[in-house]
Amino acid sequence: MIVNMSPRATQEQIDHVIDRIKECGFLPHLIQGAERTVIGVVGKNRGRRSELEGLLVAPGVDEVIIISQPYTLVSRQLQPTRTVVNVKGVEIGGPEIIVMAGPCSVESRDQLMETARAVKAAGAQILRGGAYKPRTSPYDFQGLGLEGLKILKEASEETGLPIVTEVMGIEDLDAVVEYADMMQVGARNMQNYPLLRKLATVPRPILLKRGPSATIKEWLLAAEYLLSGGNPNVVLCERGIKSFESELRNTLDLAGVALAKELCHLPVIVDPSHATGRRSLVPAASRAAIAIGADGLMIEVHPCPERALSDGPQSLDLPGFAAMMQTLPTTAAIAASSR
After folding, report:
1. Which of 167, 217, 265, 326 could serve as a FRET partner for 317 with CA atoms 20 to 30 Å apart?
2. Which residues lie below 8 Å from residue 32, measured CB to CB, with a gap of 6+?
3. What is the DSSP string of 291-330?
């Protein structure tokens, strides 16, 4: 539910509406714009929802809107203007296409430093790299853990690139918060609700990847956990979904990107590396993602993909990434003209 206050509403009238929402057992979320105040109402006390509809006659209230979707805070009905998420000076969701690039896994200091310098030179704005890796097999490389975080921090300090890295569980949270500028929720953890609740209290932007079998609604409800818990700085990431197609690692849902941007105000980026699983398709998928309106990309890059300890077949080498970056400005200009 959304309560739109009149542009002439006084602070006393706004406070009255907030108090009434609380009396009915709901939580008010205040959005104060330049022209008017909007109050989002969230909670599950359905028995008293009809009482809230009575706010329509309260002083200072213009309208009360019932939201048909189960998510309120991420909805564009609540916030028509798009959210811009700031990651240490890099703005995701603004006019510029943001590229996050780096290896799937931090394997060594030399490997990461070489990659970080190269992606910075090619135009990437954020450094990605996994210190903790969720792997299907328990025998596969699981990441360097704390050592990997320290290497990421060193690379960030040298290049000036902010860091985004995955947090796999609550037990790793404090360490990742100390070193990372943006916390990634991997696809397998999209519906790890205890982790989402904890991340909602962390003073870091969150990159929320879509689960491999998740619907758009489930993805947006996962984001709702973060916003309702107090963290408004959320970026959505489409990374491909499972389908009957066997030639590709996943199926890139470009229509889902467009729909997510239509339904919610959060920035949406695309991970074409995981979405395709083939390095030859990453440049084309990247251009398609930008053309349909994605706010950025997340690209896996490795100095020698054939030696990568994880995701080598989908990683671009350093010259390949630099070449791909040269093809993006024209596509970005086309996308910007249609926004």
Report:
1. 167
2. none
3. HTT-SEEEEEB-SSGGG-SS-GGG-B-HHHHHHHHHTHHH
What phi and psi values does residue 239 have, to the nearest 5 degrees?
-130, 20
Task: Measure the CA–CA gap between 316 and 335, rounded to whole angstroms.
Answer: 24
Return the structure tokens found at 21: 């929402």
Q: What is the DSSP string of 25-86?
A: T-EEEEEE-SS-EEEEEE-S-GGGHHHHHGGGGSTTEEEEE--SSS--TTBTTT--SPP-EE
What does the pLDDT look like over 144-176, one tens digit per residue? 899 999 999 999 999 999 999 999 999 999 999
Q: Quick one: pLDDT at residue 134?
A: 74
Amino acid 278 reads: R
Neighbours of 294 (CB within 10 A): 27
Residue 33's pLDDT is what? 78
pLDDT at 228 (0 to 100): 92
Residues 297, 319: Cα–Cα separation, whole Å: 18
What is the distance between the alpha carbons of residues 263 and 77, in angstroms, rounded to a whole number? 8
Q: What residues contact 28, with CB distance under 8 A and at least 6 apart?
A: 17, 18, 21, 22, 39, 40, 41
Residue type for position 283: P
pLDDT-flagged residues of the chain (< 70):
45-47, 135, 139, 330-339
Per DSSP, 108 falls in state -
Q: pLDDT of 65-97, one tens digit each?
A: 888 788 999 999 888 899 999 999 999 999 999
Among 151, 148, 85, 155, smallest CA distance to 127 is for: 155
